[in-house]
Amino acid sequence: MNLSNKPLEKLNVLSFKGVQMRTFHITWLTFFACFFGWFGLAPLMPTIREDLGLTKAQVGNTVIAAVSATIFARLLIGRLCDIWGPRKTYTALLVIGSIPVMLVGLANDYTSFLLFRLAIGIIGASFVITQYHTTTMFAPKIKGTANAVAGGWGNLGGGVTLMVMPLIFAAIVGAGYTKHDAWRYAMIVPGMMLLVMAVIYYFFTQDTPAGNFSEINRKRESKKFSWAVLADWRVWALAFAYAVCFGMEITFDGVATLHFVDSFKLDQSSAGFWAGVFGGMNLFARAVGGIIADKVGNKYGMKGKGWLLGIVLALEGLGLVLFSQANTLGFAIVAMLTFAMFLKMANGTTYAIVPFINQKHVGTVAGIVGAGGNVGGMLFGFLFKAESITYAQAFMYIGAIVTVVALIVFLTRFDKVAQPETAAQTAGAI
């Protein structure tokens, strides 16, 4: 049996052998780079706020803009993955997304900055492609683990971005430029990263282990939209779940630096560091969720995975409430690490379930659930722009919302439709 054109049965993260592992490493690294473009402005917001004279409400609107465009982009990207394949789709997204990233420095007032943030938001759709592409490369029993590791290591870019961008900014200031110019020039760096990854992605990956979509015979029904996807409650339950885990993650990425500056009087670099620690949890936390979900799924099926998701969401909600009550930096950091652990485990668990909901429309399901994450991020953003509540109160309200969604997940029967899957079926369906 030739395994070179089959989904892998085992994930060896130290291996770069074969198209499956090469694609795995390139796709998570590309997603990692995308975070530099998507959230590169977040750790520089204290400077940008001062430079452009932004109010709290205006800052909140930019946070909302950064994630709202991603909602529609993820829905579209999911379908394009099913039709064009992840290789061409990712390449196009990287090239198009690099343009507003490099040009955001032209913004000189609130309106133009807001529009650039909105345009940059399309880069967030990169997540759907990463999960889709990883799904095509691995067998059913290891999909959850592979998706979680790829997603987690890619999400790690969010944390590294919060740490590194202030350093790039400081280096530019050290070279003699003003703060007014430094944040603008700093964004050219992530824009160039996206273009480099576009070239790498196009020439060194392929759509499936068996070849690119244009080279292999694929089932025609995978190109047709199925309304049954929208009628499946499990899809929406997962969208709600992702709204309160990944949605909270990208919201926190956007406001954490400002929160640490305003609440604990840290400077921009120190605040960016601690905000980056939150993102750094993706090095292992999301993978832990996927690994445990695969083990639970192998023993207890989809029902077990659903219960696991409900549990980690409930613990995330509790951690957020504790974080909202922190009145010292030390307690805030401990609480942050607590809710971060369960939040990122929930991310991994969610996408350990996604590939098994509808095997013929994996991209569409992944796109809807992924968009749900950004809907959550957008709605949470309204809490942080409100003048009538503090950031701490916003965190407390979100903790309560997460707990309610955990209950919804507990009540959802993810095992209601038995979908036995084999590696051969997966290769054909995707």
From TrEMBL:
Biological process according to GO: nitrate assimilation
Domain Major facilitator superfamily (MFS) profile as annotated: residue spans: 23-417
Cellular compartment(s): Cell membrane; Membrane
Gene Ontology cellular-component annotations: plasma membrane
Coiled-coil stretches: none
Chief localisation class: membrane
Stored PROSITE patterns: MFS, PROKAR_LIPOPROTEIN
Name used for this protein in its record: Nitrate/nitrite transporter
Species per Swiss-Prot/TrEMBL record: Xanthocytophaga agilis
